[in-house]
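Troubleshooting: if your tokenizer reports a length mismatch, compare your output against this known-good record of 513 residues.
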Amino acid sequence: AAATADSCCPIRLLISKFNMTALVRSTPSDNSNKENLPGNAIDTLDNSQLIRLPVELIERLCGHLDCRSVAQLSATCQRMRQLLGSRVFWQMRVRRLLHSRQLPGAGEICDGAVQEEAGAPRRFRLPDELSSTSSINSAEDAADGGSGGGGDVDDLDDGHRWRRRCTALETAIDRFGDPSRSRHRRMQYGIGVCIDALQLLPSSCGLAAVGSRDQTFGLVSLRGIRSGAADADCFSYRDRQHHRGWIWSVAAHEDSVLTGCWDRVLRRFALHPAQLADAVMLGSPVLCTAWLGKNVALAGCFDRSAYVLDCRDIRDTRRRVTVHSSRPVLCVLPLSDHYLLTAGEDTNVCVTDLRASLSQPVQQFSLGRSRYLRCLSSQQPAGDAGDTRQIWGAVQHGGIRCFNWCRRHCRLIDASSFAADLDAAEFVGSDSVQQEQQQQQHQKLGVGNNVTCIDSPDGAVLVCRERHPMQAYLATLPPRPLAGWPNAVSVSCRDGVVATGSLDGDLQFWWRD
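Known-good structure output:
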């Protein structure tokens, strides 16, 4: 009976009648290709039966196709381009996707502690919508006269951007919604050591840079991981001599890797061949590192300072950024060639212009309530032409904040403040009393609830906490939960590979063939 009902479904009958699979794979604008098409596909193209259907039915049919197939269908004729290439069509598709109850984690709020109430579903929006960054750019374009005429062209351009956003969300759901669908490999990096620092290098390198609390820095070969080689054979480089303390962070760029260590030394390792290239003593333990371009290294330290160093002369080109006056700098992130984002334990998030005063930020946000950002990650929103970057930050005792960096205006916007219910983006709830009780309980039990790492691959956000499963979210506000992954304290995602490090010295990798 189920099979009969499925075969009688009107949508499936229409898809079968018009042979949409053949239609999507064809290109009618090239008449020379018609001779290679099946006969029923040629009839479909010549009679134009599909485009004579009501718009609502065409949209319903496209709901059974993925974004790539819909994009191919929109390229078959002018009519399909107008229907399936508009901004409204893709906006509605994104709305349905974000609020679908068929998604992994549907009905949950963040960590699953709170369920949706009947008749009061959550509203999920993209961060750039909430921060009104797009409206700022549109207002400037209108002032310049760029929006006069050509409304159809502008609508199709917006549709293209929304299509890329929808594709990114679908890809994130497929990749992070179910870890069991990916190939998996676990290797022992060390025995009972915490892996605080982890970053995947570009696919051309095929390496993962790893730093742990037993003072070991290593480069792990992804080729060895995929081929099933023994754990010892997966190391392309291993250093246990140069570091004299915990390795807190690693940052990779092209052919170099930075390491930040508790011994107050910032080190740069070359990859070809793998060896220590430079080392410079800073004023205090190095807590975070990043690259600004090819030759400029960034470091945040325990002495409330961030350092900017030119690696071509790393010992004599040190510049000190002192916008955090009371507590250590925990995060450094380059926003552009001239702007630097820092966050510290003083609960402040600061933007500094490196061409101006290094002691006065050009922008500053205070998170308040004794909350501060433990880690930062950035992504380029899908469909954006480069004017906007999304900055995702993890709050120390639980929570996600999102900022939008508008490059055209050199302005940082707190997208989280535009959310209808900001506390919905918090892991442990909005009740401060409950938070304090939970934190005290964790301290008594010796169990941490602190956020340790965040990464933001396109369309998703991955968050690690001490002794908790890593949680995958869609990059929305509030964050849309997808799935829980194995426990991890560090994570890195790049080119379809997910790598995590644990408190017990285990490295785990997931990838698709």
